[in-house]
Amino acid sequence: MRLLAADPREMEEVAACAVAMARALGADQAVASAQASARVRVTARDGATDIALRDARQGLTLTVYRKSVV
Description:
Elements: H1 8-24, E1 29-45, E2 48-65
Antiparallel strand pairs: 1-2
């Protein structure tokens, strides 16, 4: 069972695009990290589903480095 529609290749492409955009805007270096996580919680009571929760998250972190001009 797949919980997220986050294809690893797609996430890699997004991270690479973020780095390329940062470089195009003047960054000397940039590091991007794409994350995805999912969890499912089901509680049953008296043989029936009582609670069913699904939590899915995706994120992108971009760190940009630029040489200081003095």
